[in-house]
Each structure stands twice: as C-alpha cells, then as structure tokens.
C-alpha cells in the first residue's frame, strides 16, 4: 500500500498559476497558516493539489523570499557549505535567509561551478585542478600502472585516428594488450578487432 493521494486528480488544475490564485493562497495562509497542506486548496477555494500549493508558497509567494542576484557573501557561503555537504541544497539554503533550495541549486549549476572551474578549482572536490593532475600523474607513474596507461593510450590513439579518418584501421594488437591479441576481450570498449566500412 502506498500513501494516500493528496488530492482528487479529477478536478485538479495544472499548469501556470494565475495572479488570482496567488492572491487566494496568500490570503488564506496569512489568516490560517500552513498547518495542513492537504486541506488548504479546498479551504482557500483553489482547484489545486496540496503539494502544488505548498511548492508555490515555499518557492514563490513567501514574504521572506529573496529574489535577484546572490551577494558575494552568499556565494562564499554556498561554496564553503558545498565543500562539506555536497549537493544537499536544502541544508545549504537553510543557512541563507530567504533563499530556496531550488534557487541555490540553480545558482550553483549556472554560475558557481563555472566560476570555480575558471579559477582552476574542481567544483566537485574543491581542490585545484593542478593538485588533481599531480595525483593522476603520481598514480600513473607507479610501475604497476605506467605500462597499462601507456598501452591504453596507444589503443586510444589508434581508435581516435580511426574515428577521425573513418578509414579502416587494423589495430596493432601486440602493442595494446596480450589478452586482446588472443581474443580475450574483457573490455566493453574493445568488442572486435575488425572494423568494416559500410
């Protein structure tokens, strides 16, 4: 058994809210509060479901909402908190007065990720790209990995040349990997050794 639906689907209006609906919802909440979202649409005279009313109020109509540009201090707070909690937008928004989780998420995805990348900082790990490249180089420099990386790079170059020229290329399998040369392909990326032109 699932949850009880929040409304009767038959008589529910969908789509864009009208200014009249916004006024009805705002007036009702100003008088009665937001205690029971399932009852609010009916009591306010709206043909909407409770979830729609809750989201409209939370994201657009609340009097304490801030609209417009994020300040430098807000951006710094978002970046600092994101480095600790990741993409938990509601936790981040709770620390920014008047901002919704959706506003914070959209600002991160459209502005801050690009801003950090432009500054040479990985927006996922919050480490400088140079630091990440050094980690990758260190990993690839270990004796156990370096020969595999070299072989994979050789295969990758051959495959890219084939894709770019769209001509038939016979892989030099002895340079790629002994397992591939013997037909033991465990990689989904190397399905066959022959590429036929059509």
Automatic annotation (TrEMBL):
Gene Ontology molecular-function annotations: DNA binding
SMART domains on file: SANT
Keywords: Developmental protein, DNA-binding, Nucleus, Repeat, Transcription, Transcription regulation
Example GO biological process: anther wall tapetum development
Coiled-coil positions: none
CC per GO annotation: nucleus
Name of the molecule in the record: F14D16.11-RELATED
Gene3D superfamilies given in the database record: Homeodomain-like
Domain Myb-like: 9-61, 62-112
Compartments, as annotated in UniProt: Nucleus
Predominant location category: nucleus
Domain HTH myb-type intervals: 9-65, 66-116
InterPro entries tied to this protein: Homeodomain-like_sf (IPR009057), Myb_dom (IPR017930), Myb_TF_plants (IPR015495), SANT/Myb (IPR001005)
Pfam families with a match to the protein in the record: Myb_DNA-binding
Native species: Salix koriyanagi
